[in-house]
Amino acid sequence: MLETALERALTLLRAARKLDGEAQAHALANLEAALEEDRAAARGQSGHGADKADDVLVEIDQGGYLIGWNPGAEAMFGYSPAEAIGQHVLFLYCADDEDADIAELFPSQLGGLTEVRRRKKNGDVIWLQLVLTPAHDAAGQPRGMLVQMSPAGLLDGDAKQRLHARIIEDSEQGVLITDHLERIVSVNSAFTRITGYSQSESIGRTPDLLRSGTHDAEFRGRVRAAMRGHGTWRGEIIGRRKNGELFPQSVTVSVVRDPNGEITNTFSLFSDISVHKDAEARMQRMANYDSLTGLPNRSLLNHLFGQVLAASRRNNDRGALLVLDVSRIGAISDTLGHELANELIGTIGVMLRMALRDADILARIDGCKYAIGLQAVGTREQAGLVARKLLDLLAAPITVGGHSLKVNADVGIATYPEDSADTATLMHCAEMALARASESGAGILFYREEMDLSARENMLLETELRQALAGNQLELHYQPKVSLRSGRIVGAEALIRWRHPERGMIRPDVFIPLAEESGLIVEIGNWVLEEACRQVRQWMDEGLAMPPIAVNLSARQFDTGLPARVQAVLERHGVLPGQIMLEITESLLVRGADLVITIMNQLVAMGMALALDDFGTGYSSLAYLKKFPISVLKIDRSFVTGLPFDEHDCAIARAIVTMARQLRQEIVAEGVETREQMTFLRELGCDQLQGYLFSPAALASDFAQMQREGKRLMVTAEVQKV
Ligand code: C2E
Ligand code: CA
Ligand code: CA
Fold first, then answer.
1. How far is the CA of 582 from the centre of ligand 2 (A)?
2. DSSP letters spanning 174-228
3. pLDDT of residue 118
4. pLDDT tens-digit series, residues 384-423
5. What share of the chain is helix, strand, coil (3-state, %, to 5)?
6. Do 653 and 632 form a contact (C-beta atoms < 8 A)?
């Protein structure tokens, strides 16, 4: 017993060193008292019964400093007497206790019961019930307060449950409680306010309801492990509201265990921090996530996919990188508005995310381009199946803002480790496969080495094309257009040719798309206009009466400077605007319609006629066409080919002609090769024909010769018989 007394004395002395004069005096007085107490205990009489094993008993002086700390207190709070004694009692309070005020101990609750929150050494918060008794020293002077504590249990049964239910319901934080199977058993109204899901929509479901897809399986595994280990996980995660919107939330997830340690429930407290997340975090997000879809952007994709590749190297895993491009969104934006197009992009993001596994990475890397990282894909075919699934998903009309919209999509696939083991190269391969997939209409293509070869080939060609432009290797050929009434030549289209020094004549289908891609088309286009005008001038000088010559324009030439550029070229060669006609394609019409109309109107005001090329292959509808000052429609060759035997082609040709007549436009049929086609088109009411039936594109001199000779097409059977 004496050891105990000495031990306590030592403890008190140590504690006293930390205190100021007055408190030290108290502590020393207390030491006296304690020693006295121990002496009494040694004599077999217990003072207050303070050390009964299961009692938690502490004593504070009148200033609130701890002067007594029994083993029960040590067991409950985790502080040894040496750590506790001499501290102010406030050190047991929870940091966020707003009413942290020791006045609660004096004097009104004397002898009474009160239920309070306190914090243990390990940070855990416990609810305690206090019984307070004044303490006196040996001389009978008030010494402070004896505080007996026991775990709270003041509110029993129903009352307590009602109170807790009330607190949960009124909480500003969203509360979600699940059972041991992770089924939601309870949510509060803040939950509904934040997420948009009502009680009935959420109860019985799992918290996956709110899963944003932003976090990978590994992350979620870490949260689970933390909960199994310490029982609590705190952090910030991205959730998804019922309306699809993503939101950052600050979450605490805890578990409740039964006496055997089995988890019976989990509960999450979360708050929507989308409004008050600090600027830095928002910047961070903006740098990593695409604001429209909430999906990772290209830079985060590089990071995430880099991790996947690193892991796959360790585990010898295989996988794939897909790039998916959605087309027609530009046209939708032009016709139905930018906001609707944005909404559509967001919706597609959600659709793709939902169709993919959680472990798959989905990022939006460009306007209408998404990248998908597939992990642990056993075979190439599996990656192909995923691509097929995504395309099928997007093939059905998508409802956005009350519109039912149809989009098109293509996918390029690169696989690792076959194609490469680094993100940049895989991305390059997938993009190349994508380009081929959309070009060829295949929809889905795997990367092949030949693609790279042809890409290199193209680069070479592009370099050579620049030289061709400078070195007079380009020339214009002229394909006549003839009237279906008189059979006479009424115009011609200038078509570019490349006389390559080694490869011979290269057709425009090969190099025009390349020039479009590289931007070289603008220079080429300028050259074509210049050359056509020069030729027309030359024919005029030779005294030849020539019909209007049509020049093809690329959409990239169509900027606000175009009318002035055209005017300058015409003037330079002394050519009238009516002698040149411009052919444009539908792709131009869907691009920023208002600006395009303005430019077209300027050209028309100058006295030029505009023809719409390849009509029927694109997007245009009659209502849409009305907005543009176009005087000639050229029916695309693909519809002429099947005439007059293919029912479908006949129907289309008939519809186009009917439509064009309503708009009072002249109709030219392209690529007419047979008399049957000609007859059908003439009877339909087509005005002109252009095609091999009459002549392919010819050298300028040959075309001039036809004109001089007055070459004609026999357009009627009667004439033919003669
Ligand atoms: P396009 O404007 O649709 O030109 C008509 C194409 O059909 C020409 O091919 C012409 O030779 C071909 N064609 C004409 N009649 C027939 C026929 O009866 N049967 C068949 N099978 N084909 C016929 P070409 O000259 O190879 O031009 C291909 C495309 O290259 C043009 O299609 C046009 O889009 C583009 N292009 C040609 N020259 C230029 C130019 O100066 N500038 C721009 N931007 N593009 C050009
Ligand atoms: Ca054309
Ligand atoms: Ca055409």
1. 9
2. EEEEEETT--EEEE-HHHHHHH---HHHHTTS-GGGGB-S-S-HHHHHHHHHHHH
3. 85
4. 999 999 999 999 999 998 888 888 899 999 999 989 889 9
5. 45, 25, 30
6. no
Give the residues across from 661 on adjacent strands.
none
**Which tokens sit at 219?**
């992350």
Provide the 3-class DSSP secondary structure of residue 45: coil
* DSSP-assigned beta bridge partners for residue 114: 130
Mean pLDDT (the chain) is: 82
Ligand 1 touching residue 412 (CB < 6 A)? no
Check pocket membership of 520 for ligand 1, CB cut-off 6 A.
no
Q: Are 426 and 321 in contact (CB under 8 A)?
A: yes
Mean local confidence (pLDDT), 667-677 = 96
User: What is the Å distance from ligand 3's center to 670 Cα?
Assistant: 6
Decide the pairing of beta strands 174-179 and 66-69.
unpaired
Biggest CA-to-CA distance, the chain: 147
- Residue 550's contacts (CB-CB under 8 Å, 6 or more residues apart) are 481, 491, 492, 493, 494, 580, 581, 582, 583, 611
Encoded tokens for 385: 């199946």
Ligand nearest to the CA of 614: 3
496 lines ligand 1 (CB under 6 A): yes
User: 329-336 vs 338-355: helix axis angle to the nearest 10?
Assistant: 140
Specify the ligand 1 atom closest to the Cα of 554.
44
Whether ligand 1 lies within 6 angstroms of the CB of 83 is answered as no
pTM above 0.70, yes or no: no
Q: Which residues contact 477 (CB under 8 A, 6 or more apart)?
A: 494, 495, 496, 497, 697, 698, 699, 700, 703
CA 575 – CA 357 distance, rounded (Å)? 64
Q: Which two tokens stand for residue 614?
A: 């390849």
Contact 358, 373 (CB under 8 A): no
Backbone φ and ψ of 269, nearest 5°: -110, 125
Atom of ligand 1 nearest to the CA of 614: 3
Find the ligand nearest to 672 CA.
Answer: 1
Position 90: which residue type? L
CB of 549 closer than 6 A to ligand 1? Answer: no
Mention every residue, 6+ apart, whose C-beta is less than 8 A from residue 106: 145
Residues 434-475: pLDDT tens digits?
A: 998 988 888 899 998 777 767 777 778 888 999 999 999 999
Residue 101's pLDDT band (cuts 50, 70, 90): low
